[in-house]
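ESCALATION

Customer reports they have been waiting on this structure for their group meeting. Please prioritize. Original submission:
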Amino acid sequence: MDRRTFLAGAAGVASLSLAGCSALRGGSASADETDYDIGMGSAFFRPAEFEVQAGETVVWRNTGNRRHTVTAYEDQIPDEADFFASGGFESEQAARDGWMGDFEGRINAGENYERTFEIPGEYHYFCIPHEPSGMVGKIVVTE
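Update from on-call: job pushed to the front of the queue and completed.
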């Protein structure tokens, strides 16, 4: 057998093996991806910016293995809009205090948080424990 034939065959077997692995891992993951809009990794929201129409619900899923929060920057949401945070807090400071007290508002691995946005505008938010790492996001709500 010549070298090119051998390498072509080996590459084909390797790619089939890897495809099988990714199909097993990705098979359930791709089905799950339709269950949420924004994923949360080690220190990021993906996508970092997401657009919806007024009245639509956004679903975040912790797709990583670290605890996260979704917490609005109180001064960076539309004036008419209600504050939002995982854990149901009524203010940014209450959410920060809850996290520092007993990790309140946490979204554990595989868990979801959802919020319906009624007021058009931009909603900036962050993850309390990973804010220093730049874990921030933005929801843009259109009419």
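Sent to customer with the following note: The helical segments are 3-33, 92-102.
Escalation resolved.
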